[in-house]
Amino acid sequence: MRPTTLLVLAAALGSALGGAAAARAATDTSGFLYGTITTSSGTEYQGRLRWGTEEAFWGDLFNSTKEKLPWVDEVPRDERRRESTINLFGFEISWHDDHDSGRQLIARFGDIDRIEVTGRDDAVLVMKSGQRVEVEGGSNDIDGDTEIVVWDARLGEIEVDWRNIERIQFRPAPSDLKLDVHRLYGVVHTDQGDFRGWIQWDQDECLSSDELDGDTRDGDLSIPMGNIRSIEKRGRRSSRVTLKDGRELTLDGSNDVDSDNRGIFVEDERFGRVLVSWDAFERADFAEPPGSGPAYGSFAAGKPLQGTVTTRGGRKHTGRLVYDLDEEETWELIGGDRRGIEYYIPLSLVASVTPTGSDRSRVVLTTGQTIDLEDSADVGEGNAGILVVNEGKRPVYVPWDEVERIELRR
Predict the structure, then answer these.
(1) Rounded CA gap, 217 and 387, in Å?
(2) What is the pLDDT of residues 303-332, one digit of tens each?
(3) Is residue 337 situated within a structural domain?
(4) Does residue 398 share a domain with residue 321?
(5) Distance between CA atoms of 260 and 214, rounded to whole angstroms?
(6) Structural domain harbouring 318
């Protein structure tokens, strides 16, 4: 067979495969947020959902602050408020770490059954496991100015103000849901390797219809993300954008394409989700998506954490675990930084955590992969410690500085 014939066949095969992938992306809409919003007036709106111009999929992250830490009363009183001291430029600075204070909550939308709104920036999250978590503020996901867009099949597109919402009941997207947009997917190249998965650019753009903004010598541009083949960083001030039709553009003057970018989320199935900073970012190559991502039913109900804590003195305590005095189920995430890449890892993917310094830990995943993380209360000295709970016995509290290793069991 002649080489030219092979090239023609290869091109035809590539076109066919690409067309098949595009067809799957157009027909599979199970990864999109979907549910029913009930307002304070009793009106219901049902359809595809989006939090403002940001979160639109089950794997996206809902952010807030936990109002209460129900397990803190099990900590000995002398451990609840511990003094920390550092020496800075010859001056000794001391402060108190108060374990009673609220903690950040980060949850995947797919882990939530419903949201019961209780105030301007207050709500109760009811998880699939039945666990109820009281939250307040902490992000633009939950405040009086939050708007949630609903595409109601009968009424059309509606922007519902948070202050008017009484309840949001999540449910799987129906199989007959038809959309003319698809989810962004591809490979993000960094100075630490590649991450493949669903992409949320600048913590914002995640749909083919979302636009990348920037300036050129000829004027301002807003390019639909679905028309872009790749984005490559050119220092701190600009990026080279290659379109699917082969044209190349250099864009600047916007946080979409310069160092003001808030980071690129990649939902990589190996880790959960990573946030790539502009410093670590090199290039993003977009590809035809294999559908729309994990469906609502793919997120299993959380279970109580179980495992063993080994202390520096060699003692082992086994039972139900409460990590950092607030993470107590497998749906919850622990986070940390690795040279400009933030990891958000569901505890269901974690096999063990071993502190390796005052502000870092080695995290081993259930796949056997190892990640060294730092600069987070989950993996450093800001951790409030671990409770080990066994029915009929007083919980055992292990301060973080006494932890040798934490092993989770499935």
Answers:
(1) 59
(2) 999 999 999 999 999 999 999 999 999 999
(3) yes
(4) yes
(5) 12
(6) 302-408
